[in-house]
Amino acid sequence: MTQLPTATTPSIAPRDHAAYMRFALSLARNSPPKPTNFCVGAVLVDEPNNRILSTGYTLELPGNTHAEQCCLLKVAAEHDVPEERVGDFLPEGTVLYTTMEPCGKRSAGNMPCVERILRTKESSSGGIKTVYLGVREPETFVGENVGKAKLGAHGVRCVHIPGFEDDILEVATAGHKT
What we know:
Layout: H1 17-28, E1 41-46, E2 51-57, H2 67-78, E3 94-100, H3 113-120, E4 130-135, H4 147-153, E5 157-160, H5 165-172
Parallel strand pairs: 3-4, 4-5
Antiparallel strand pairs: 1-2, 1-3
Helix pairs in contact: 3-4
């Protein structure tokens, strides 16, 4: 799988979780602020080879798209397959960095990001087995988010990367009424 080359793709040391979270936060800043969405950034990484596979942010792609969804849709498009098969093209050891806990419920018709992540596990590579997150999802739109618990119940490790909470929430809630 080839990395999507861009001038904004940083050089990050292997397993530098803080640097990957900073990169995800920089992506979140590209999200158009709206009162009905959180501005979230995500980075899909082949961790054993320290290679960025794709990036995403809220509303980057057409529709009411979330950051994690955009990452997976880009990999699917790169391989000309439906998103349901994206796990077949993820290298073993693929991890996801996201500024906010993946959604366990969607209020606007799309499949929750947790379901998309779990669907990658149906592949021979085992799919995404670790999600690094910056903050839990606030209960603003769908009530209690069960994303982290559901991922954990299905064998996906969720690891909090501390130190970014204030910055992430400031960016995430841009466009919300105060």
